[in-house]
């Protein structure tokens, strides 16, 4: 069963689908930058005062037992553009995939590992960007339906988790997937003495008391020797293990001590999304534990060429009392590979074409800065009187220049909060480039006015035309390319590495994990889709459980690497 069946669509339109298929988010577009910035700030300031986890703590603990679920799927960072999200959803929905010679049945349980919608949470965006595409991929199921669980990421928390809980925690169908959870965190008992635990640690670095109590009750049957798959909203092990911040991983380590190790069980696998790539770190051991990031569910592709090498976990500077013995983890596999990641980073030079709205933003900034500089030049030439006259003449240009400097420093600091000195250097040079471009263009305008355009009305109208159209179109384009060049260079130093990829909104190179559970342990199949489909053929006469649309060309799924074996 599933939610009530609707008439199968004959075309990819909102009227036929019941939802609006969206384009991929253009992350550097002015509206997205402004809205997500405001939402992120409000969530950080007020989120803890309206924390839905406190309300969830009053709910009865439900045990989620799926001891027949020998296949489990994990997907994260989805709900972006329709083509990428639906391509991945269709692979997940297929009754079976044959990937590089391996027959992989659909997971009995589907775990969404964070950031189920972009750029911010609302019921409309969930419907259009996530639930709609997944319903189109699996409209109905017959017999025993698969079950969906979702862990929120930071984008799901932007509205205080309100929309997330309405979509995933009220027993509603998600296409052909049933939902069971009533909280933003969950514990699932799996076959062969395995458990999947998903913790929600947004806003702060602690697991709140109601959440701890939930897991103590939900894992009452956990016993010595059991294996655990731990899902977190961020791969905190990468930062902490390479000498960065430890707070996020300290939370994981604390949870592992209080819930897992207290029962004599062991966390054999940690899974996360958040970073939109695949990276697997394996312990240096005969029976290695795995730390895997797989955020390939639909959002823009992220770089991998700056990933750190060996990790030490827990880190030596951990503040957790009685941590587990330290162990080293090596980076075994990344997707995309280093060469491909570097090539994609260079593609940022297409920024004005990939993000026309950003071109408009830089054009607007350059127009304001140019007018401010021209005002200062003209006032000085006509004889501004004394010190205060000069100050009044150049005050607009100085103010705009200071805004650019502060913006450049803030932008660089966001790119890597740990490399403060390097971020300040890159941010200052970046701002100086913008100011220099505006000043240089202003003198070009003065030259055109005095030496090129003839005296009279043509002189005034010609200059107005150059400033009003030439500045936003030409100088705005050059300014956008200046940002692109900055991102390309800065990313090689580990600054603004996320932005160099976000600005391109790369939809290809997606994937998910399919996990098999047997008496001896786990086998993890990392599935990749190098190219998503962008042309879909409606199937109005197909069976009730068939996808609404088939790809014009078959989706070619492969493995990122050979299956990863994890023993208990």
From TrEMBL:
Annotated keywords: Membrane, Transmembrane, Transmembrane helix
Residue stretches spanning the membrane: 358-378, 390-414, 426-449, 461-489
Name of one Pfam family that matches: Metallophos
Highest taxon of the lineage: Bacteria
SUPFAM superfamilies from the UniProt entry: Metallo-dependent phosphatases
Residues in Calcineurin-like phosphoesterase domain copies: 73-276
Protein name per its UniProtKB record: Calcineurin-like phosphoesterase
Origin species: Actinokineospora diospyrosa
